[in-house]
């Protein structure tokens, strides 16, 4: 379908349908944004508004006391809050970068390099997607313990590098690249590494940008699940792991918990908004002409 047919199809649609679609999508977007709006308002609510009945959705007397109390809680800790923040950013960024590179390199081999066990290996990758993280906890712990990586950053980074979801996603995208393009690059003298890095990776940019969203969000919000099992040193824990310690302080810490919730949500949302525009733009402009 060419551009003229798309424009003709677009012009044939009535303005009434456009208005109805706009109203419908606006209502859906407003409804889906309610949890985010409530979280933002709750972070600035004083305790009397947080425990008000009926519950208040919009804050009446906004205050920064919840954030001040949060700073006070961490000021009494022997591990500074900046250390938790560093651990969170380091694990999220390093794990995401390593996962994208390893998954894309392995996907290129499975998708474009012919060898004997190609299909059986990919079948194992697909089969591994059916197992939940709870099933693999014991094998992961035994492997990390055998490698001597307990109570280190590698206890979280290594499982993140080996996640098969990114491998499956990248392989499915790379299979859509014509073999003729890769063969032409080889004729011109390009090496496998150059083909992978300078030809294949730019074409599958929507895939690895989407993978960045999934991986970063998973490591940012679920780091505490892994750190509680594999990391015992307080100076190596993440902000999300400390979130549970703050919440265990009772109702007196409801305000700081609301502030931490907003802080933990802000980074994944910002990354999603930034990468989403890139994904949409790339998917609309990176097609290959026949």
Automatic annotation (TrEMBL):
Domain ABC transmembrane type-1, residue spans: 85-275
Protein known as: Carbohydrate ABC transporter permease
GO cellular component: plasma membrane
GO biological process: transmembrane transport
Superkingdom, natural source: Bacteria
Family statement drawn from the similarity comment of this UniProt entry: Belongs to the binding-protein-dependent transport system permease family.
Main location: membrane
Keyword Transmembrane helix included in the entry's annotation: yes
Protein keywords: Cell membrane, Membrane, Transmembrane, Transmembrane helix, Transport
InterPro entries from the UniProt entry: MetI-like (IPR000515), MetI-like_sf (IPR035906)
PROSITE patterns tied to this protein: ABC_TM1
Topology of this chain in the membrane: Multi-pass membrane protein
Subcellular location: Cell membrane
One Pfam match: BPD_transp_1
Spans through the membrane: 20-40, 84-109, 121-140, 152-170, 195-220, 257-275
